[in-house]
Design a protein that fits this description.
Helix content is 17%, strand content 35%. The chain contains 5 helices and 17 strands. The longest helix is centred in the first third of the chain and has 12 residues. The protein is globular. The protein has one domain. Strand 7 and strand 8 form a beta hairpin. It has a 7-stranded antiparallel beta sheet with strand order 1-2-13-12-14-10-11. Strands 3-17-4-15-16 form a 5-stranded antiparallel beta sheet. A 5-stranded antiparallel beta sheet has the order 6-5-9-7-8. The two termini are 24 Å apart.
Length: 252
């Protein structure tokens, strides 16, 4: 059984990058990841609080609010760091409304490990933009979340990442194709270093820009894989919204 499972994972590793809205498991440099894709024009949204102003905190609460509208999450993951009250650290834009400001100064922790960046949904396309470049020429983002550090900057790994680092966590983040038509959301299925995680985006997914979301709170909701991670309450969440009937069909 173990050999059969290993063979299945190896087969998945050579499959093409995920098709529209799908999540797949793959191996990169012998490490297991799950990667989900959104394509240009998909209904990709950020979620923070419900209509009463209370933080969602969980995938289940987002699903509960979408269901009466005939909608569901095709996939979702936590999308940036947050304060104890679950408000975003750095820029946060939801449905065109700016709810937290951009931060461009260096600071403590991973968020302040410059360069950091912004994931932006704009005009049906996607971008990961370094924060100071974003401040110099702010794009019109319908949804945006700031996080840090950048994983890949113009095809190069973040200069402070160490190839032999012993600091390893379950990590998640997002990378965007060069033409902005595809966004790849990845989570490691076992602890990895920053350098290892960034190489996934640069070498396997071939995204010239990629952004780290978190490593202490990294969770994925992927109904087509029968997966919905749980744990402590989340802040910002990014999710692909699909018709409820489609989600039910994918879930089997």
């Amino acid at each position: 059984m173990i050999r059969a499972a290993e063979a299945l994972v190896a087969a998945l590793a050579v499959l093409p990058v995920p098709a529209l809205g799908q999540c797949l498991q793959l191996l990169h440099e012998g490490l297991p990841y799950t990667v989900c894709e959104a394509a240009a024009g998909d209904d990709l949204r950020l979620f923070l609080t419900d209509e009463a102003g209370a933080a969602y905190g969980s995938f289940e609460r987002i699903e509960a609010e979408l269901a009466p509208q005939g909608l569901a999450l095709g996939f979702a993951m936590n999308a940036g760091m947050y304060h104890p009250d679950r408000s975003p650290v750095g820029l946060y834009v939801e449905a065109g409304e700016t709810r937290a400001r951009l931060i461009t100064s260096e600071g403590p922790g991973n968020f302040g490990m410059l360069p950091n960046g912004v994931f932006c949904v704009r005009g049906g396309e996607y971008a990961v933009i370094e924060s100071r470049a974003f401040a110099a020429d702010p794009p019109d983002c319908r949804h945006a979340t700031q996080s840090g550090p950048m994983l890949v900057i113009d095809g190069a790994l973040h200069p402070r990442f160490l190839p032999d680092s012993e600091s390893k966590l379950i990590r998640n983040g997002v990378g965007v194709s060069g033409d902005g038509s595809r966004a790849f959301f990845a989570i490691s299925n076992r602890p990895v270093s920053f350098h290892q995680f960034a190489r996934l985006f640069r070498d396997e997914l071939e995204t010239p820009q990629a952004l780290y979301f978190d490593g202490n709170v990294s969770r994925l909701h992927a109904p087509d894989l029968g997966r919905s991670d749980w744990g402590r309450q989340m802040g910002p969440v990014v999710g692909l919204v699909v018709p409820l009937a489609n989600a039910a069909a994918e879930g089997g």
